[in-house]
Amino acid sequence: MKTNRRLVQVKVEATPGTPAVPNPATDALMAVDFKWDNAAEPVTDEFKYAAGYYGAKDSFTVSLSRRCSFTLPVVGGGTPLGTNLPAPLLAMYRAAGHAAVVTAATSVVFNPVSDAMEAATLLVNDDGFLRRMTYCRGDVNWVFEEGKVPRANFSLLGTYETPTDQAMPAATMPTLQKPQGFNKSNSVVTLGALALKCQRVEIRAGRQNSYRNFAGAEDVVPTDAEAQAILKFELPTVAQSSVYADLETNQVRALSLTHGQVAGNRVAFGAAAAQLVTLSEEEDRGILMVTATYNLKPQAGNDQYLITLT
Q: Entry's Pfam families (predicted)?
């Protein structure tokens, strides 16, 4: 089977665990670098018999789950504003523990949630070999870095179904805004009142999920979400902003990232309470840089950060 003939489809399940039926005309996903982290992850038990010779044991597959990961471009909500972000992209953020609020003619806003979390069905057709994951829930991290366009890296955990043969359907790929490079023209990163000379930003949703299979239940349950941001930036002077004092005093600062200039293709990240927890230094092209890890703390709940597409 040809790995370059792969179609990925995703759709939110109306009831978590009840398979959705993705439509290749509306639910095709432009996944980048798709891989099966475990196409069939077994839970096994075994008996090792007292048989008078070596090697006497039986193994029993009790349950199976699946894990996969892939990348999606980070782009704005399209135009007219708030009405043109493709359904499969919305589905992925929702399956990764986010509420998606679409306001026509205005924006798409994602925020993390702690209850009423959704799940999705994922179909992967590899040249006529079909694998399905249901009850999919996952994690996402966003990466903005020098010399690249921004990426959203997703990982999914879901229930297993036996693969089948199915002809590759004709799919309609979604129309996306073109991702824009992370550079001075397109991007601004602010910590407190200081605009940073920032080389890299990684925002980790920190979603944790667990697969269960026992009498009365087979599901993927969310267990926690501890968001972090990891920044690499040029060390500012003490007068500009003392990052070491922030670490010493448990200082909490607002963190923001805005990316993109044109309406319909702008992305804004905001965290009201970012606390510095680790700090290291290194040299880059003769400049002293720091890598700083921030815990993104909720204030009223489900507000560790907001992602706004305009």
A: Phage_tube_2
Torsional class of 245: left (φ above 0), alpha (ψ -120 to 50), beta (otherwise): alpha
Q: What does the alpha-carbon distance between residue 3 and residue 132 come to, in Å, rounded to a whole number?
A: 16
Closest C-alpha to 67, from 39, 91, 88: 39
- Residue 180 maps to a domain: yes
CA–CA separation, 247 vs 45, rounded Å? 47
Tokens in use for 35? Answer: 């891989």
Residues 62/98, Cβ–Cβ less than 8 Å: no
For 135, the domain range is 6-44+61-309
Residues 6 or more apart whose CB falls under 8 angstroms from that of 286 comprise none
pLDDT digits (tens, 9 = 90+) for 31-79: 999 999 999 999 999 999 998 888 879 999 999 999 999 999 999 987 7
* 0.90 exceeded by pTM: yes
The separation between the first and the last C-alpha atoms of the chain, rounded to the nearest angstrom, is 40
| Domain count for the chain | 1
* Structure confidence at residue 37 (pLDDT): 96
Residue 51 is assigned to a structural domain of this protein = no
Q: Considering the chain, what percentage of its residues have pLDDT values greater than 70?
A: 99
Look at residue 26 and tell me if it is in a domain: yes
DSSP state at residue 14: S
